[in-house]
Amino acid sequence: MIEKFLHHVRVELPAPDETAAGARVRLADKFPRTALRRMTHLGLLIGSVLDGTPLGPADALVYASTFAETRALEDFLTRFPSASPLLFQTSIHPGGVQQVLIGRQQSIARLWPLAGRTRLVEEALLTALLEPAARVALIGGEERGTWMLEHDLASGRAFAFAALLTREPTGAAGRVTFTPDEATDEACPTLENFALALAARSPLRWPGAGGTWMMEWS
Questions:
Q1: Is the model's pTM score more than 0.85?
Q2: 61 in Cβ contact with 136 (< 8 Å)
Q3: DSSP reduced 3-state for 155
Q4: What dihedral do alpha carbons 120, 213, 45, 165 form, nearest 10°?
Q5: CA-to-CA distance for 182 and 146, rounded, in angstroms?
Q6: What is the tens place of the pLDDT at every residue in 124-157?
Q7: pLDDT for 145-193, tens place per residue?
Q8: CA-to-CA separations, 30 to 33, 46, 107, 183, in angstroms, rounded
Q9: Strand residues in the chain grouped as ranges (E)
Q10: Partners of 114 in beta bridges
């Protein structure tokens, strides 16, 4: 079994109708004013969940998102043939977390950006568990799409989460474990369901590829 402990768990579940402009107003006190206008909705949510989470140059960060900056990409595509270089810059993965790290002038040891669908949560957790840094920030999130949602190319809601994974059980809110075994490869939680479990402090257990996953709370 391999395990790490969860510290500094934060989740953003904004109102379904919140826009990037609304998030700039709601979260304005968390960011420099000069940075606000360039940040995407997802970047703002990630900055909010990372607020108060201590990161240093020896720490690593695992970032998981299936669709990343959906709204920026939608706007970029609809403006062709006069596409915006700024929208292109903010539409790429992993733009959201980079906006926050650059704004903070925060250096870290390693950044692991992951994109996927059915097994993204497992891939992100396994990366965090195997990362040798003493502290690993696990970050994930999505923006709510509009017309891309109709093509199954966007999330139906906006959300973001952050947790600091360490080997230190003292003061931990919970832990994540992976036990290699002959478990059948069943459905993995979606990134949204994982975020909701973090928000509600709900336990999770599922058999994945090559072993069994479990998240439990103190």
A1: yes
A2: yes
A3: strand
A4: -120
A5: 41
A6: 999 999 999 999 999 999 999 988 888 888 899 9
A7: 988 888 888 899 999 999 999 999 999 999 999 999 876 677 899 999 9
A8: 9, 11, 19, 44
A9: 2-12, 60-64, 110-114, 135-142, 159-166, 174-180, 204-208, 211-217
A10: 64
The pair of three-digit structure tokens given for residue 47, joined into one six-digit string? 């900055």
> For residue 142, what are the CA distances in angstroms to 59, 120, 178, 182?
23, 13, 25, 32
Q: Which residue has the tokens 């650059």?
A: 102
CB 173 within 8 A of CB 9: yes
Return d(Cα 119, Cα 56) in angstroms, integer: 29
Which two structure tokens, joined as six digits, stand for 207? Answer: 């058999």
Q: Cα–Cα distance between 116 and 61 in angstroms, integer?
A: 17
- 6 HSE (CA, 13 A, CB side): 23
196 vs 165: CA distance, rounded Å: 18
Identity of residue 46: I
**Backbone phi, psi, residue 12, to 5°:** -110, 120
Prior bond of 85 cis (ω within 30°) = no
Token pair 């020896």 is at which residue?
58
Assess contact for 46 and 158: CB atoms under 8 A. no
